[in-house]
From TrEMBL:
It comes from Agromyces salentinus. The chain crosses the membrane at residues 31-52, 58-77, 89-119, 139-169, 181-208, 214-231, 263-284, 334-356. This is Phosphate transport system permease protein PstA. Part of the binding-protein-dependent transport system for phosphate; probably responsible for the translocation of the substrate across the membrane. CDD domains: TM_PBP2.
Amino acid sequence: MTMTKPEAETVTSTPIANSLTAGRLPTPAPWIILGTAIAVSAALFAVLGVASGAGFDWGGAIIVGGLLYVPSIWLFSRLVEGGRRAKDRLVTALVTGAFLLAMIPLISLAITVVTFGLARFDAEFFNSSMRNVTGEGGGALHAIVGTLLMTGAAAIISIPIGLLTSIYLVEYGRGRLAQGITFLVDVMTGIPSIVAGLFAYALFAIFFGPGIRLGIAGAVALSVLMIPVVVRSSEEMLRLVPNELREAAYALGVPKWLTIVKVVLPTSIAGITTGIMLSIARVIGETAPLLIAAGFTQSMNYNLFEGRMSSLPVFVYTQYANQGNPPEAYLDRAWAAALTLILIVMALNLLARLVARFFAPKFGR
């Protein structure tokens, strides 16, 4: 008897549908949609410009094109890739648009300051003051020196106070006293800068009489603004130090003060230095407190404790507000001083980045 082997059934495999990878827009699709949206917006603005006779507005066309791109990319992604991917592309478009929108005034400001500031960005501007200068010529050496002296004195006052306060709050502070200090630091963080200038002026007027203007008074006003920033930034950096490092030092019998000096501070020195540099960059451009407490002068003054002292922000203000003949010379000096101030702040920020990079704990091991 012969038995026949049944034939194997043919099984046809069907692909498994996966909503996460079912469909994808081509890689250049977002750029094509963006270009199309801008082209449609440009055509609309061209028609409106011809009809009104106002000309073509490139800025408005790009902004409206970006606004058209957001719902367009969401719609195309929804039809092809599904709801999950469409939401991702929508949020990406919104975040990118917000970033570009925030960069527009910054880039415009930088281009404007560089364009107008280069007109007087010469050797005379950096090696002469405004003494006996009424028209063209002159420079901002007295303002640059005053800015560096007052900011340096403010840093000397603020850094020890702010750093020691943050050490107390993190390592020792408990109870109502620490809560009160934290509350006062929060309040000081939000006070207007002109209030700091009025405080410094009133403080020195008590001892030297009304109408006193001193460079050290301007430094005190800046220190009032710097201290809360130093406290907050240093406090956050000290709290990031792992408790295991402190406990290991205590287990070896190291006193608490020595643990702070040898373990906690070296571990957080990069972040603390960065915060200090950023606090200096934050106060170096203040105008109102220095105008009240230190005043302004056209001559050189190297003594913080005698006479009025000029600064770059006040120099910019006075050159713009008190224009003489020709007014272009005063405006050129104001723009050049603004460019100098921006370059000083940029240098401080770059120095903070370098300190954070080279003084980080991983480089010291």
